[in-house]
Write a structure and sequence with these properties.
The complex is a heterodimer. By secondary structure, chain A is mostly beta strands. Helices cover about 5% and strands about 25% of the residues of chain A. Classes of the chains: A mainly beta, B mainly beta.
Chain lengths: ~240, ~190
C-alpha cells in the first residue's frame, strides 16, 4: 500500500482550547491532560462517504417543513466547502440546525420563554456538489438567553456539522451574522484567539445571493483541514 | 496553505433534531454485515463523575476483514457492501450510549507495523469547544502488545482507559463496556490527530 498523506495539524490559535473558563460548561468537561499526539494512519485518513445518498435526500429548504410558512426573515445561505489549499470538498454531508426567529429551539430542554413556531423545525442537510457548493433556504435565527452568566445572550447562529473526506477532517461549528453586537460578548465565539480565524465564522451579506422581493443572501464558505504535500514515508 | 481552517465550535445542547440518525447506532444494518456482531455500551462522565447526558458519540472502523470503506484504503481485502463503518449515538439521561457493530479486523499502521483491532471514537458535547477523539481497543487481544498507538502511551493506567471491558455475552453476541471520562480521575486518553 502507499504511504499515508497526513492532514495538517491544527494551528493552536486558530482553534478554541478545550478549557475556556468564560464558557462555564468547559470547566468540568475539558480534559486536564493535553491530548496525546499520534501519527495518522489509515484509521485517521479515511472516513465515511455520502456520495451514494446514504444520508437520505437533501433537506435544503427549512421554510417548507411545516404546513405553512415559518415566521421570520427568509435567508438564502450558500457557500462552498474547501480545504486549506482551496480545493473543493465534493459530495460531503452538511447537517445544520438552528432556533427559530424568536430564539427558541424545537427541543424539550429549551425552556426559553419565546414562542415555538409550528412551521419551523430547524434542521436541514445537504450533500455538497462537485465544486463543494451548497445552498440552504431558511429563516434568520433569533438571539436567545442562556445561563452561562448574568444576562448572557447567544448571538444569532446556525450550527453546522461537516465530514470532509476523512475522520481527521470532521468539523462541527457555528456560523454567525456580520454586525451582531452580541459577538463581542460571546465566550463561545471569543474562545478562538486568532482574529482572522474567528471572523471566518461570520457570514457576510451577499447582494448577489439575495433574491429580489424574496430573501436575503448570506455567504459562508467552510474550510476543512488540508493535506501535507507528500507522504511522510515511502511505501513499504 | 492559502486559507484559514474554519474553527470548531461546540455542538451545544440542542443538536438532537439536527443530528438525529436513528439507524446509525446499528452498523450491521440489522445483522447483514459480515463478521462477529458485538455490542458496545458505555457511559460518558464529567470531572465530577456526573453523567454527560447531552453528547454525541461517533465511531469509525474497519470491517471484519480489516478494511475501511474508503477509496484510500487500497488493501486487497474484501469490502463488505453491508458495512459502512460509521456510527452515531446520543447519550441518554444516565450518560449512556450504545452501538451494535462488527468486531473489526486488524489494519495496517505506518511502515510495517500492524494495528490491533480498534474503533475510532469521537465525542461532541455542550462544553466541548472541539471534539475529543480516542480509540476503543479490545481486551485479551494479542495484537494489543505491539499496537503502535497503545504502546506510545507509557503509563499502563492511562493505556487501560482505551481498553473496553468484556461483559457477559447477550446470547451469542459479545458485549463490551467502554466508559469515557472527560476529566479527572480515570480520565480517558484523548488524541491530537
Amino acid at each position: 500500500m502507499s504511504g499515508i498523506r497526513e492532514y495538517r495539524r491544527e494551528r493552536a490559535t486558530g482553534q478554541p482550547p478545550h478549557l475556556h473558563p468564560p464558557y462555564g460548561s468547559t470547566v468540568k468537561r475539558a480534559p486536564r491532560r493535553p491530548p496525546h499526539p499520534i501519527v495518522q494512519t489509515l484509521s485517521e485518513v479515511t472516513g465515511p462517504g455520502f456520495a451514494d445518498g446514504w444520508a437520505g435526500p437533501d433537506r435544503a429548504d427549512l421554510t417548507r417543513q411545516g404546513q405553512g410558512a415559518p415566521i421570520g426573515e427568509r435567508i438564502i445561505l450558500a457557500g462552498r466547502v474547501l480545504d486549506e489549499d482551496g480545493r473543493p470538498v465534493p459530495r460531503t454531508l452538511i447537517e445544520l440546525w438552528q432556533c427559530n426567529a424568536a430564539g427558541r429551539y424545537r427541543h424539550e430542554r429549551d425552556q426559553h420563554d419565546a414562542p415555538l413556531d409550528p412551521n419551523f423545525f430547524g434542521a436541514g442537510q445537504v450533500v455538497t456538489g462537485a465544486e463543494g457548493e451548497y445552498r440552504f433556504l431558511t429563516i434568520k435565527p433569533g438571539a436567545y438567553p442562556w445561563r452561562n452568566s448574568d444576562n448572557a445572550w447567544r448571538p444569532a447562529h446556525i450550527h453546522f456539522s461537516l465530514f470532509g473526506p476523512a475522520f481527521a477532517t470532521r468539523l462541527v461549528t457555528q456560523m454567525y451574522f456580520l454586525g451582531d453586537p452580541l459577538l463581542a460578548l460571546d465566550p463561545i465565539f471569543l474562545s478562538i484567539a486568532d482574529e482572522e480565524a474567528r471572523q471566518s465564522l461570520v457570514a457576510a451579506y451577499d447582494p448577489a445571493l439575495s433574491q429580489a422581493e424574496f430573501a436575503l443572501g448570506y455567504r459562508f464558505d467552510i474550510v476543512l483541514r488540508g493535506r501535507e504535500a507528500t507522504p511522510l514515508e515511502a511505501a513499504p | 496553505m492559502t486559507r484559514t481552517a474554519t474553527p470548531s465550535q461546540t455542538v451545544g445542547p440542542f443538536f438532537h433534531d439536527g443530528l438525529s440518525r436513528p439507524g446509525w447506532s446499528d452498523l450491521t444494518g440489522g445483522g447483514r454485515a459480515a463478521g462477529q456482531v458485538i455490542r458496545i455500551a458505555g457511559r460518558l462522565r464529567d470531572g465530577d463523575g456526573a453523567p454527560v447526558d447531552d453528547a454525541v458519540i461517533e465511531i469509525w472502523q474497519a470491517n471484519a476483514a480489516g478494511r475501511y470503506a474508503h477509496p484510500e484504503d487500497r488493501q486487497e481485502r474484501p469490502l463488505d457492501p453491508a458495512f459502512r463503518g460509521f456510527g452515531r449515538a446520543f447519550t441518554g439521561r444516565d450518560g449512556g450510549y450504545a452501538f451494535t457493530t462488527i468486531r473489526p479486523g486488524p489494519v495496517p499502521g505506518r511502515g510495517n507495523a500492524w494495528q490491533a483491532p480498534h474503533i475510532n471514537v469521537a465525542v461532541f458535547a455542550r462544553g466541548l469547544l472541539k471534539r475529543l477523539t480516542t480509540r476503543l481497543y479490545f481486551p485479551a487481544e494479542p495484537l494489543n502488545e505491539t499496537d503502535p498507538v497503545l504502546n506510545s502511551i507509557d503509563d499502563p493506567a492511562l493505556r487501560r482507559t482505551l481498553l473496553a471491558v468484556a461483559e457477559a455475552a447477550e446470547g451469542e453476541t459479545p458485549r463490551y463496556r467502554f466508559d469515557i471520562v472527560l476529566q479527572g480521575e480515570g480520565e480517558t486518553v484523548f488524541f491530537a490527530v
